[in-house]
Protein 1
Amino acid sequence: MMASAERPGAIEIRSLTKRYGSVIAIDEVSFSVPEGTIFGLLGTNGAGKTTTFKCMLGLARPDAGSVLFNGAALRPEMFQHIAYVPERSALYCWMTGTQHLEFYRRTYTSYDSARAAKLAELFHLDLRKRVGALSKGQQTALAVILAFSIHPKTLVLDEPTSGLDPVHQRQVLDLMIGESSNGTTIIFSSHQIGQVERAAERIAILHDSKVVLEGEVEQLRSNEKIIEAVFDTERPALNGLESDPRVRAISRNGRLIRVFVRRDTELVMRAFAEKQPRSLRMLDQNLEDIFLSAVGGDAAKEAGERDVL
Amino acid sequence: MPAIFTVDPHTGVPIYLQLIEQVKRSVALGVLSAGERLPTVKQLATELTINPNTVARAYRELERDGVIETSVGRGSFIRGDHAAETAAHALSSVASSTFDAAVREAKSMGLKRDAVHRIFGQALERWYPDEQKEQAQ
C-alpha cells in the first residue's frame, strides 16, 4: 500500500511557463484544483491547454514554474494513480482493445477488469478490433475506458469527448461526475462550453498563452453581468466608469450603453441609476458569454453592437 | 421514472439557485411531501449531469432554509415538522422572486411606478375577483 502522502490529490500549478523556440506556449499559468473537484480548462485553439497538461504530467519540461500534487512534486510512483486521456490518441494502432486492457492490467495495481468490461459495453465498443480499425470516436472511447478502469486519484482529460456522439459524450460527463463524487480530482479541457458549464466546479480560461479568467463557475455566473442602460441623450458622460476596476468592458451605441461588469453588480447598477437613465436593466451571462468577453473585448463589443438594430 | 428536476446550465442563473427554486416549488405544490426522500447528491448530479458540489450546495442552502433535513448515512428528506409552514414559506418565496423579476422588467421598459401599480391591480382583479369585492365592501 502506498502512503496517502504519495497519492496525488489536489493540484497546484504555479507560474508555469513553456517556450518552444521563440514561441511562448504558456506564460505564467497558475491555478489550483482542489481535491475531489472537477476543473475545466477552456481556451481558443492554440491557447496552451495541451501544453499545460503536458507540463503538468512531465511530458514537456516547463521553462519556469512548478506543479504540485498534494503539495509534492510529481514522482514516477504517482503515475499509478494518474490517468491521462491525451488530445491525440496515444493508443497502438496494431493492438486490439483487449490487448490494451491487458497492458493496463499488468501496469496498474488498481486495474478493475469488471469495470473495464462494463464500460466497453456502455460505449458499445468491440474490444476484439485493432485500434487502427476503430473510428476516431471509438478510439476516444477506448482511451476513456482505459483511464477509468484504474480508479485514478487524478484524472487529466484533454478533449475527452471529441468524436463521440451526444449520447456517449453525456456518458463521459456522467462518468466524470460519478468519479469526482468518489473523491477523484479531475481536470479536463473541452471546446464545448456547455459540457464545462455542466460538469466543472471551477474553470480557467486560457487566451494567448495566459490565464485571463479563473474561478468558480457559479460565482462567475453570479458576478459577471451586463448592465444595459438607455439614456435620453446621445453619448452620455460616464464619469470614469470606463476605468472602474469592476467594469470589464463597455459598449456604446448612441443612447444605449452596455457595461460588462465583473463584480459588485448591484453597486455599479446604483452608480448608473444616479445618472438617470430612461431604462436600466441587468442581464445574466452564461459561461459562453463570459468566455467570449474574457478572450476578447472585441468579441463582446461586436456582440453588443450586433444586438442593437 | 421521469426526473422531477431539470436545470438549464446555459442560462445565466446559477444552477444551484435553479435547483433550490425547483425543490421549493415542488414542496409548495405537493409534488414532494413531508418526509419524502430526495436523491443523493451523487444520484442527482449524474441524473442531471451537473457538478456534485453544485447539488451539495443547493442541499446545504435548502437545509439552512428549513426545507429539507439531512441525516448522515440516511440521506436528505423534506422536513416533516411544520411541513405546512415550510410549504407556504417556499410558495411565497417562489412567488416573491417571480414578482420581483416582473417589476424589474417593467421598470427596465421605462414604466412609471403608477403604471406598474395599475397593471398589478388589473392582474389581481382578474385572478382574485371575489376577494376584490369583499375588500370593497
Protein 2
Amino acid sequence: MIIITEEKEGLRAVFEGRLDTPAAVKAQQEVGPLLENADKTITLDCTNLDYISSSGLRLFLTIRKEASAKGGTVIIENINEEIRKVFMMTGFFNLFEIRNA
Amino acid sequence: MKHLTLPNDIETIPRLNEFIDGFCEEQGISMDVCMSLNLAIEEAVVNVMNYAYPEGTAGHVDIEVDADKESITFVISDTGKPFDPTKKEDVDITLPAEKRTVGGLGIHLTRQIMDAVDYRYTDHRNILTLRKKIYKQKVL
C-alpha cells in the first residue's frame, strides 16, 4: 500500500516493504493522484522500501513520463543499496533526481 | 537440489521469494546476492506467468535450483508456447525518460544479474537455465 500525502509543493508517496510484481500491480491502482498532480513536485519516499522488481520500476517510469509531459518534477528519496544497484543496471539514475539522506 | 511448482498466477510470487530465500540461507549465500537472485528469477518466472499460456488458461511454471562450490543454477521450465527470452532485444538504458519504453526491463535485469542464461525448447517445454557464480560466506 502506498500512503500519499500533500506537501507544500506537491505530493509525497511513501513506499514500504517489497514492490514485487503483485505489489506493483496493486500499486498501479493507487497512483492516480500522483499522475493527476504530475505538473507539481512528486516525491517518492523509498526510505522503507526493501525491494523493487521491474513492475515497480515501470510504475516509477510511468510517473516520470507523466511529469515530463506536464512539466513537473519527480524526486526519489532514500533508496537502499540493493535498489541502488537495480537503478544502476537500468539507467534509472539518469531519469530521476535522487536524494539520499 | 530443490524444486517448486507454481501456477501461472503472479499472486504466488511471494512463494518464489520464500523458496529462494530458504535456499540461499541453507547454502550460506550472502543477503545481497540472494536479493539479486530473487529479482533475476522473479522477472524470468513472471515472464512465463504472463505470456507463456493464453489468457485465462491455467498452466504451471517449474523452478529448480541447485548449487555447487562455484555457482548456483536455476532451471525454469513450462509447457507454454515456445519463447526464447535470450533473443529479446536489449533495452537502451541511456535514453532520456521521454524516449524510454516501459517494457523489456525485466529480462534486462535477469541478464544483468546472471552470468549465463541459456534457452532450449525440448519435448514441448521451454527450458531456461540461469547460472550465477557465487562466493559463499564462511559458515561459523
